[in-house]
Amino acid sequence: MASGKKRGKKPEVEFRNTQLADALQTQDMAAVAFALRHGPTVVPLMRPGARDDPRDTGEVWTFRDPKTGQVALLLFSDALHKPEAMPKAVGLHSPEWLRAFLEVHGDEITTVFFDIAGPHPMQASPADLIAALDA
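User: That's the sequence. What structure does it adopt?
Assistant: Structure tokens below.
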């Protein structure tokens, strides 16, 4: 028997980390590190994760420079800062996920860019981010 109550619509997930956006605005690496340790990061995905499998976080999109072969990881404080030319899918990943991803792929990734298209871009090495996440 129906209870007569309508099921509420699930709240939309906000693909942003306001604290990270604020830290990037000031270009303060200590504040960026704090924001990364305490909030999610928006990550572009080639393939989104399977909805029925919480262990499937999707396939992360990275940029390989065709001239140098160097690989960059692009991260965002807000999905709205992701350039249109990039894949549409994004993931919202935890500090633990970011730390593990950098540990596994840090030798291949030469740099990590935050909000590369603005409004306040910043870059760091994978080693610097691992140190920041471990602090």
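The domain at 18-49+58-134 is CATH 3.40.1350.90 (Trna Endonuclease; Chain: A, domain 1).
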